[in-house]
Request: fold
Amino acid sequence: MNQLADNTNKTNVEQQLGWNREQMAQRCAQDIEDGSYVNLGIGIPEKVAQYVPEGREVIYHTENGLLGMGNTPNDDELDVDLINAGKKPVTAIPGASYFHHGDSFAMIRGNHIDVCVLGAMQVSAQGDLANWSTGAVDAIPAVGGAMDLVAGVKTIYIITQHTTKSGDAKILPECTFPLTGKGVVSRIYSNLAVIDITAKGLLLTELAPGVTFDYVQSRTAVELINTL
Amino acid sequence: MIDKNISSCAEAVADIKDGDTVMIGGFGEAGSPIELIHALIDQGAKNLTVINNNTGSGRVGLAALIENEQVAKMICSYPRTANSLVFPELYRNNKIELELVPQGTLAERIRAGGAGVPAFYTKTSVGTPLAKGKEIRNFEGEDYVMERGLKADFALIKAKRADRYGNLIFNKTARNFAPIMAMAATNTLVQVNQTVSLGEIDPEHVVTPGIFVNRIIEVTNPQQESQLVKSGVVYPPMRTKVGE
Reply:
């Protein structure tokens, strides 16, 4: 019991290092270019929309059938027929469009969406992503649009805590969980660093404040290349 | 004369048979044709294969159809959601079969079925457990997995407005799977908030052309799944507990 409690404490400290959730989203948002069509996953990725620098016009796609997704509605604007992929109420911006699922996934699968930001359970050195299932036998399997997004969107960004809640590495030589897609991730924004996945290997391009390369390396199960 | 209007949901679903495949529109509650689903529960056809993105919530609509043991198999992408009680219980007890399909592959399979395309290749799911046992083919240096088109005996969908030819328009993101399901089913049954005269829907604005629609039922004030779930409504009202 004591051992477990100690681990939990250590973990909490570790996950508080570097950038917090808002700051990870904010850091990722700097890399969303003006004029992009963007799909944001549920959770921290959703927050990216709040931080895209002023002056950039970005169109948000939600795969249930809306291009030009706006903010969360006020209570008097609520419409049960206007929701996002997380089934939460949203608004439509002026210039938005509605379409059916066939067209919506043609936008995704036909390489029309520029950027998708997702969460991760594991990412491999080759950019394989696991984010839909731990493979546990008693779990109800559910995949949604994750496999379509990673297969079809031009650039896949991942926002994730650098390690699991119990302190294990999430960036691994090979994913041990069932894959969402093979060789699909371009860049990881963790609480500790920004890491690009390239043919040469994993390039560490930026460190969160107060974090050292050696520390990030010690929390990563793959050798990192320091570009700083 | 062509008039696809029918007077009741009960009449619309009357000829759904045991063992039929039924596509049901909706993404969560948006676009879910609750009145048609409840009519199907009253009608009682069993051993159905149902195609929907989810498995319903609470104990009304699609969840109630499943709880009523009318569904032998679900084909869907995301069988658990907030307030999803019925499916997880039956699935864990091996009382219902699940074919898990990525959401875009599900949409494309339905669209293919409706367009007379028996199979197609996609990059989605290559290298994952969901591609297991399926044909992989390489095109221009990349691997693709073969997926089959999906057809159905019936589609139950919801639209905002219809004329008697069956031309449809939808409401916002409630459109989701309805137009492609209308194309893929032999019999497409549509509950609509409002029926209008021919010509009142601008041909430029028709989303689903009437050729894909068979029966229209006007339900002017449809029930909302989330409201029913919030009020603890159970359909049919006599049932007591999940699984009983």
In short: The helical segments of chain A are 2-16, 21-29, 101-109, 146-152, 213-218.
